[in-house]
Design a protein that fits this description.
The chain is an alpha/beta fold and 329 residues long. The protein is built from nine helices and 14 strands. The chain has two domains: 203 residues, L-asparaginase, N-terminal domain (Rossmann fold); 112 residues, Rossmann fold (3-Layer(aba) Sandwich). α4 runs parallel beside α8 and α6 packs parallel to α7. GO terms for molecular function: asparaginase activity.
C-alpha cells in the first residue's frame, strides 16, 4: 500500500453543527484527521495514512505564511520521508488559492490533492466523507503523477489554475470554467483523466526552485460602474505595495478615474496586472491602455493573478519579464 501524508486544516469539512440540519451555523476545526481515518474505514483500505495536523484555522484566515510553511512541509514528507503523495483537507473559501500557490511552488511530481466540503461532517447528506475518500483515491492513482497539484471535489478532478468556487452552499461548489475539469472519480470508483495541465507547474516551475520566506504585498482592486480610483490612490500613498491586480469589467477595463490613478501607480514603480471579474476569457493587451504599460493577466482570475504576480516579483520587477511569466504559467 502507498504511504500518503494527510495534512489537515480547518474548514467546513472539519466542522460540527448543532444538529444534522445545521448547514450554515456550524463551527469548523472540531474534527481532526485521526477522527476521519477512524470513522471512514475505507480510507485504511486505500493507503497507509499518516495524519499531520497543520492548523485548524478557517480558510478565510489563511495567509501567505500558511502557504509557505505548507509548501515546505509537503516537500519534507514527499522528498525527504519518501511518502507517495499528500492529501490536504482545507476550507473551501480559499482552497483554490492555496492549491494554486502550491501548484506553482512545490518541488515534487508526486500527487498532491486538496479537498474540502460544502456541508459539515455532521450534516445529513454531507459531502465530506465521499470527497475525502475520493481525494485519497486520486492521490494513490498512478495517472495522478506529474499533473501538479489537484483538487478533488464532487467526483471531479480539477487543476488549481482553472478551478474556482462558484456556489456558496451547493455541493457542486467548484468548477473549472470553459476549460473544464481534468477528469472524474466515477460511480465505479475509477479515476479517469481526459486532459492535463500544459502551463508550467511544480518541478518545472522556477518558483519551486527558489527559497521563499515571504511574499511581496499585492492588492486587488475591483472595478465597477462609477469607480473613483480612490482605493488605488490610497494603495500608492501607503507605500506598502509592489503590485495591483485590477479586477476589471468585461475584457479587463476600468473607469477613467481608475485609469488616471493607475498611471500614477505605474509611475511610482508599482506593477499593474489587468484581470477580469467576469470569470472566463483572456485579458489581452489593448491599444486604449498602451500608456499604462500594464501586464495582461491572461485568463487567470484576480485572486490567482495576485499569487502569480507576488511570486514573479520575487524574481524580477521588470514589466516585460513579468509578462513573460504570465504567458508561461
Amino acid at each position: 500500500m502507498k504511504k500518503i501524508a494527510f495534512i489537515t486544516l480547518g474548514g467546513t469539512i472539519s466542522a460540527k453543527g448543532t444538529n444534522r440540519l445545521d448547514l450554515k451555523d456550524y463551527k469548523s476545526g472540531l474534527i481532526d484527521g485521526t477522527f476521519f481515518v477512524e470513522n471512514i474505514p475505507e480510507l485504511k483500505e486505500l493507503a497507509k495514512i499518516k495524519v499531520i495536523p497543520f492548523d485548524n484555522v478557517s480558510s478565510t484566515q489563511i495567509n501567505s505564511q500558511h502557504w509557505i510553511q505548507l509548501k515546505y512541509d509537503i516537500e519534507y514528507y514527499l522528498n525527504e520521508k519518501d511518502f507517495d503523495g499528500a492529501v490536504i483537507s482545507h476550507g473551501t473559501n480559499t482552497l483554490e488559492e492555496t492549491a494554486y500557490f502550491l501548484h506553482l511552488t512545490v518541488y515534487s511530481s508526486k500527487p498532491i490533492v486538496l479537498v474540502g466540503s460544502q456541508r459539515p461532517y455532521t450534516a445529513i447528506s454531507s459531502d465530506a466523507q465521499l470527497n475525502l475518500l475520493n481525494a485519497f483515491r486520486v492521490a494513490i492513482h498512478p495517472d495522478s503523477y506529474g499533473k501538479g497539484v489537484l483538487v478533488a471535489f464532487n467526483n471531479k478532478i480539477h487543476s488549481p489554475r482553472e478551478v474556482t468556487k462558484v456556489d456558496t452552499y451547493d455541493v457542486d461548489g467548484f468548477q473549472s470554467g470553459t476549460m473544464g475539469c481534468l477528469g472524474y472519480i466515477d460511480a465505479a470508483h475509477e479515476i479517469v483523466y481526459y486532459r492535463e495541465p500544459v502551463r508550467k507547474h511544480t518541478i518545472d516551475s522556477q518558483f519551486s526552485q527558489i527559497k521563499i520566506t515571504d511574499l511581496p504585498n499585492v492588492e486587488i482592486v475591483y472595478s465597477y460602474a462609477g469607480a473613483t480610483g480612490n482605493l488605488i490612490n490610497h494603495i500608492v500613498q501607503s507605500e506598502h505595495y509592489q503590485g495591483i491586480i485590477m479586477a476589471g469589467t468585461g475584457a479587463g477595463r476600468f473607469s477613467k478615474s481608475e485609469e488616471e490613478a493607475l498611471l500614477n501607480a505605474v509611475e511610482k514603480g508599482i506593477n499593474v496586472v489587468r484581470s477580469s471579474r467576469v470569470g472566463n476569457g483572456r485579458v489581452v493587451c489593448i491599444e486604449p491602455y498602451d500608456q499604462l504599460n500594464a501586464i495582461s493577466g491572461d485568463n487567470l482570475n484576480p485572486q490567482k493573478a495576485r499569487i502569480l504576480l507576488s511570486l514573479a516579483l520575487l524574481l524580477d520587477r521588470d514589466r516585460n519579464s513579468i509578462q513573460e511569466i504570465f504567458h508561461q504559467y
